[in-house]
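Board notes (copied after class):
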Amino acid sequence: MEFHQGIMRAWADSFRYLSACFCLPQKELFIQENVLGGLIQALSETCVEAVPFSKEMEKAFKEQDEETLRVDFAKLFIGPYELLAPPYGSVYLDGERRLMGNSTVEVIKWYEEAGLIIDKDFKELPDHIAVELEFMYYLIWKEAEVLEKSETEKAHLFKEMRDKFFNQLLSPWVPSFCQKIKESTDNLFYIALANCLSTFMKIAPENLSCGRG
């Protein structure tokens, strides 16, 4: 049980650190929080296939100044005129290339079912890639938490939720999103991030379910 929970924590951390990488880059904060070092460590326990890309991310991050990272981040994910790689699930899932589509409403329902309330001051859309990855972190972390208390029924509910959310609302759009990133930038950090995320998402479903390390 202890080993299984340790692997689950590593899976949770993998999602959490990947989520952080899709937020506006702040080099000092990334270093303080050991975001990239933590990602490499977590992936080494969960998805070794993605580790080389996480190391490429770390190298590219160190070699670039914050302004370059922020400019390329904005070009890809913010605009102002065109989103080169829209980081919102509805753009890919609803077939109309629009924000706040039907799938976004579904995502909000999932958050509410998990007992989460979106803060009124929260500035991002609910189906932003960073938010959905953070939600996966939360579900896995909660599953591990209740398992530690031997609350197996609650653990099963969290497992069921994260499996369904992953398969229905997250993994279907990530490959297209990652491809958009690679087609739209020559920034080595974001190219490596796209490769890291897409590789991780291919490996995650079967391995997370069986607790492979």
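Comment from the instructor: Residues 91 and 97 are 4 Å apart (CA to CA). The mean pLDDT is 89.
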